[in-house]
Amino acid sequence: MKKAILTLALAAVASSSMSGFVYGPVFASTASKAPLAVQSERASAAITGADVQAKGEQFVYAQEFDALIKYCDEVIAANPNLAEAYFFRALGKYSVATTEDDAVLADLNKAIELNPQYADAYTGRAMVATNNGDYQSAIRDWSSVLAIQPDNLQALGSRMDLHEYLQDWNGFEADCNHLISIAPENPQGYYYRAMARVQKGDIANAISDLEKTSQLLVAEGANDQEVQKLIAKLKNGESIG
Asked: Which of 23, 42, 121, 174 is the most buried if burial means most Cβ atoms within 10 Å?
């Protein structure tokens, strides 16, 4: 499970100034593809968070996780107030099979303590919580990410998945409203909201959302036949499952 979740965690390393995490293209342009020399320069108090971000990305890209942990240890010893050092050390620890989640969480918690606006740290903590089945904590952390980065589709989609899994249809509908607010021309927001409203028994508004979905699909030149079938079933009082 850890390796699968780590793949998602790596997606969170991209610059927190981005509204969504697009890990591959970011690293294709910012990180050297040559193997990383593990002789990291001696950390000093002059190192900045931006320095740690750049160096941490290089270690992650090269999958030199033991070296990443060592580098972050040196940085923290020299300057214990850089949130990025704790975040990248957490990433390094999480990819080492022998590391307990408590050690990872301790670093993520420290990163958040030092920088309460550190969206990547909340992302990492949400992923650990999800992996451990602590879905409510994960939802809270995804909500923190969205409070910082309202357009973060990774966070929104992950929170939607959890609300759906927990059959929290009010939460799921609220997520759909959020998606519609940031992407009003995307038919998915209306379609998923329709499904939430069906679960809540709000059939009239579900039909309205499906009609909006159909309208947007047609505007895109896409096929709306399946949506039309759902509309017809709901109007006839049939279940759509």
From this structure: 121
**Angle 237-240-241 (CA atoms, 0-180°, nearest 5)?**
130
The answer to whether 62 and 88 are in contact (CB under 8 A) is no
**Domain edges within the chain:** 2-143, 167-241
Reported as type and span, the H/E element at residue 197 is helix 187-200
Residue type, 186: N
CA distance 227 to 240: 11
* Residues 197/206, Cβ–Cβ less than 8 Å: yes
Fold of 2-143: 1.25.40
Q: What is the three-state SS of 84-119?
A: HHHHHHHHHHHCCCCCCHHHHHHHHHHHHHHCCCCH
Whether domain 167-241 has CATH 1.25.40.10: the reply is yes
* Assessment of whether the complete model's pTM goes beyond 0.85: no
Cβ burial, residue 205 (10 Å; 0-12/13-18/19+): middle
